[in-house]
Design brief:
Length: about 280
């Protein structure tokens, strides 16, 4: 298993290892009983061994023992799942993960999306040709909000030892605590078969030291502010030229007011009276 870089990842690894220890113990017990039976109860003569209808202690053992094993595994699984899904701790970084066909977008938010509609500080988006990078800081508690506009994806970072589905119409969330001394680059990918280009939904995770991360965030915020400023429309001044709007038929500038023909006392235009006279 890869060495987890989060506090929650170590909990997952411990649960996984404990489950394997229990499985090996059960396997050794079962195979030991099989070998013991084959050796000590092999056929030695033509005499038929004593026949019994049941053995109460043995039957009680193989009924109670599996129940005990399942109950113990259930307890540790439920305990760790509750801890993994807890989002009560205040987060240092809030990231909205948008999975779409066929890449990822990471929106760095002021606060968790579950608190309402927070404003995005800046965003990092990728394409199938250019994978995006999710940047995190050592020691941070990071809150993730997962959303998808199209189909079901799965947000998986193997170094987290954890993954969660990204489901349209259902916003999932979880958070992790990135451990100190884990600076480096890690892999991320979609773990759900989401379509023809599923294999191209890759991204990188870069964990930075605090100073480097703060400098990167400042750079991203400045770039986002500059882009927002450049996209603001200019205000029209008093000397702006008038724009000819299309007429009712969409054929050129709006026509000037048409002078109506004089009408008679009945309100019928003169040309119409002449036509009627003919």
């Amino acid at each position: 298993m890869p060495e987890p870089i989060t506090e929650q990842g170590h909990r997952v690894l411990t649960l996984w290892q404990g489950s394997w220890v229990a499985a090996f113990a059960v396997g050794i017990l079962v195979w030991g009983l099989i070998v013991w039976t084959v050796i000590f109860h092999r056929k030695r003569s033509e005499q038929l061994p004593p026949q019994v209808r049941y053995n109460m202690p043995i039957e009680a053992l193989y009924t109670v023992l599996p129940i005990v094993i399942i109950a113990v595994l259930f307890y540790f699984t439920a305990r760790d799942q509750t801890a993994l899904m807890s989002t009560e701790e205040e987060a240092d970084t809030n990231v909205e993960v948008v999975a779409f066909q066929w890449s990822w977008q990471f929106n760095y938010l002021e606060e968790s999306a579950s608190e309402g509609e927070p404003q995005a500080r800046f965003s990092v988006a990728g394409t199938p040709e250019r994978r995006p990078t999710l940047v995190l800081r050592e020691g941070d508690v990071v809150h993730f909000d997962l959303t998808s506009p199209d189909v079901i994806h799965s947000f998986w970072i193997p170094a987290f030892a954890f993954k969660m589905d990204v489901i349209p119409g259902q916003d999932n969330e979880f958070q992790v605590e990135v451990q100190e001394g884990t600076a480096g680059t890690y892999a991320g990918r979609c773990a759900e078969l989401c379509g023809v280009d599923h294999a191209r939904m890759l991204f990188d995770v870069e964990v930075m030291e605090p100073d480097a991360y703060d400098a990167w965030v400042a750079e991203q915020e400045a770039r986002a502010q500059q882009q927002e400023t450049s996209e603001q429309p200019g205000e029209s001044g008093p000397e702006d030229p008038e724009i000819d709007m299309p007429g009712p038929e969409g054929e050129g500038p709006q026509d000037e007011a048409i002078e109506e023909e004089p009408a008679d006392e009945a309100g019928v235009p003169a040309p119409a009276n002449e036509e009627a006279g003919r």
